[in-house]
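cron nightly-structures :: item 1 of 1
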Amino acid sequence: MYSIIIAVAAALLTGFVTGRDLGTAWGIVCGVAAFLIAQLIIMLVLRKKLNKLQLGMQQTMQAAQVRIQRQVQNFQQRPVGSPKLMQQKLEAMQNDALHETLRLTAAFDPYYRWNWMLARQINTMKMQLYFQLRDFARTDQLLPKCLLMDARSIAIKLVRMYRNEDPKLDSFYRKKCRRAKGEDGAFLACVYAWIKLRQDDPAKAIAALVEAKKNSDNPALIANYENLANNRPKHFSNAAFGDNWYALYLEEPKVRPQKVQQRMY
């Protein structure tokens, strides 16, 4: 890590010079101060550069969203062709924007050696983009290199473990999800419960919902719990989570919305 090396070098040099002139105690104090100051300066410079790159990516995605929304409005005002063809065109435009965003992530590569967390942060972003593109092979390659801190990333991990029949799915859920609170906890518990129902394991499904209810009063969570508790598994539904649920590609909405859903991360 370049930032650590530079900060340590600054600390050693400052400590040596100060210690020689003012004594060991002052040398240690000044060395520590030099280390912290060097780290702060490097952090501020890096933050400025990284914020500029992130702003460029955001502007690219926003511009794509504006173009897609304009196409939707034009079609609503003057329908030309079938809705299915229009939907395909909009999806192609969105996929082009996602590929462009992925291309822009390469600009972060030179900074990985300055910030040891940056690579994992960018890998998380890329993993979500590849998943949205349904490039599941690349998604699986990136998942071990990601920071699984947000609900969407964790949900994607659960989905890929389910699709790959990973025997560690249950232990992963216990480790990463059981203590999640609020809306995130409710969402992850319902995703896991859906998976366990598909695996013919309703006991673990209802156990996850019971645990999640301690930290969330989400209506969908409560409804799913009541359906399973009253032996109505066919009424289990995560549709109330909307696009967050359908973006996992486990189910298709029964009625497709006329307005294209934007899912750019």
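cron nightly-structures :: done
Residues 181 and 215 are 5 Å apart (CA to CA).
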